Amino acid sequence: MQIASPYLLFIGDTTNQLSIKMACSAADWRPELCVGEYRIDGCTVSTGIKKLDIRQAVAEGAKSFILGFANSGGVLDKKWFPYILEAMEQGMDIVSGLHDKLTDFPELVAKAEQTQQKLLDIRQPKLEFVTGTGVKRTGKRLLTVGTDCSVGKMYTSLAIEKSMKKFGLNVDFRATGQCGILIAGQGVAIDCVISDFLSGASESLSPNNSPEHWDIIEGQGSLSHPAFAGVSLGLLHGSQPDALVICHDLNRTHMRGLPDSQFPSIETTIALNLQAAKLTNPNVKVVGIAVNTSSVSIEEGQRICAQLNEQFSLPCVDPLRDTADSIAATLV
Amino acid sequence: MQIASPYLLFIGDTTNQLSIKMACSAADWRPELCVGEYRIDGCTVSTGIKKLDIRQAVAEGAKSFILGFANSGGVLDKKWFPYILEAMEQGMDIVSGLHDKLTDFPELVAKAEQTQQKLLDIRQPKLEFVTGTGVKRTGKRLLTVGTDCSVGKMYTSLAIEKSMKKFGLNVDFRATGQCGILIAGQGVAIDCVISDFLSGASESLSPNNSPEHWDIIEGQGSLSHPAFAGVSLGLLHGSQPDALVICHDLNRTHMRGLPDSQFPSIETTIALNLQAAKLTNPNVKVVGIAVNTSSVSIEEGQRICAQLNEQFSLPCVDPLRDTADSIAATLV
């Protein structure tokens, strides 16, 4: 699967910034691949890049029309079909990270055949997996884990990869979600794998490698999230991480989407993840804490990170405001 | 989905008793639905019921040809095609609990159309699921959890249901695997659900019910199994159990299929499951221990159960040798 670039990021009429993380992640981490974003009336959020419509984007060379929004359940609303059909007519492939498959809609398949464009469901794993084995692999692995969903695990992983590359380390980012796959051009959408193969697919994502090589694996969900902890645990066991980085967003009081839920402390998150990770790697350790401090001032964010650093004796940073150098330095 | 009875249980040339648990479970729990088993040269195991070939079974009224074996990965070996084709020609539907779908093989689909027989992939969930919510449901739930895979969680669940019915309780067995679905005629093969919907599918399996009603939910895998713990955790969170029963097989020294793995103690299994279950039901408790003692004498098995009973202050039984009355009695 190869996604043709550059991209036009379609964010529709979205009003929730968390819902366009697919578009934002491409705009933030691979701006050179994005000609612009396309938003329609009613949209109140933005990726921050240039606004274009379909014709303008094609004139600037856009090759892929990215469905840059998500929703719980990953449903493809038919109200977007006119935009998708027009994009194909104008010469773009369609890229979706939703659960619903583009290729399940005859109207879209017919247009794709007529226009010779591709329908790419990047969330649908194309590979055949086997069940997990728990057998130790060579090379080293870091997994980002979270207090909740959508707290910055992918961004943290990418920031750590960036810092490690700067330090001259041999490192690869391993994508486990649609946003990461859009950025990396490959990976496995782990929450779309059949449950029986969760750990096996996770094992295949970071295969045997040279002893000094690091895989930086994008975490998913949270062991404390009632809906998604199973996915988090399968990924954790299959990843066999040597190093964990705890990710947290200051702006949370309950688990994403569940107003009545309890939010876990960082202590609890460390304890739960270390306990579970030891099943497949007894030598696992936590090497840092990454905090999304965007809900407070820079100074307040730094104060909180310094406090967490002291409390846990671990590097603690906002990887976007500060870089992840201090965490990457523990891996040299 | 309705499975036509009676069944012919096909166990092929299997040499591993654990691999024919689908056939055995039907023979043990619904003997009135089974006309016999069909085994071929090389087979060294048995369900213990009458041996018949396809023609003999049809003469005795068999309506469904059950693929009664399983393997890691759930692959359908093409060497079984001649038997499947003959069964359809003789007037039987085909029932499979493998991951590989009967309906994905054009040769089988063509024969099914020609003979007007059905291909039933009971492991493939037909329902559409949503992601989990963690919202508390009415009614009461018991989940069986294990030290390992294949230690008797389904048998224990069925034995508890049987004892509870004897006590006049309002109870339903909820099947989560292909064997249970064959027995119950409905259910969700939870390890075949897309990971994102693990908890949501588990929630849908035991919906709101009357306050005194009990669902006895068949557990899957083990929180200590490197390959399948994610499935176990999603099922645990979605089930919101009020009561847990710990299942164990005396005849294990390592996790199924993983010779180098560590086997968890019953203490560890209790602690891990209670800790995780409290996320969606803070009032959860362990109400019993079910031990498969078939590897030792009846007397030795009873001695071990008595010792565990004393050690944990919980009813401890071999539900097949002793019934599960003492566990069911805690739920009256």
From TrEMBL, chains A, B:
Listed InterPro entries: DgcN-like (IPR011669), DgcN-like_C (IPR035086), DgcN-like_N (IPR035402), P-loop_NTPase (IPR027417)
Top-rank taxon, per record: Bacteria
Domain D-glutamate N-acetyltransferase-like C-terminal: 131-327
Stretches assigned to the D-glutamate N-acetyltransferase-like N-terminal domain: 47-125
SUPFAM superfamilies attached to this UniProt entry: P-loop containing nucleoside triphosphate hydrolases (SSF52540)
PANTHER family given in the database record: DUF1611 DOMAIN-CONTAINING PROTEIN, GLL3100 PROTEIN
Protein's name according to its UniProt entry: DUF1611 domain-containing protein
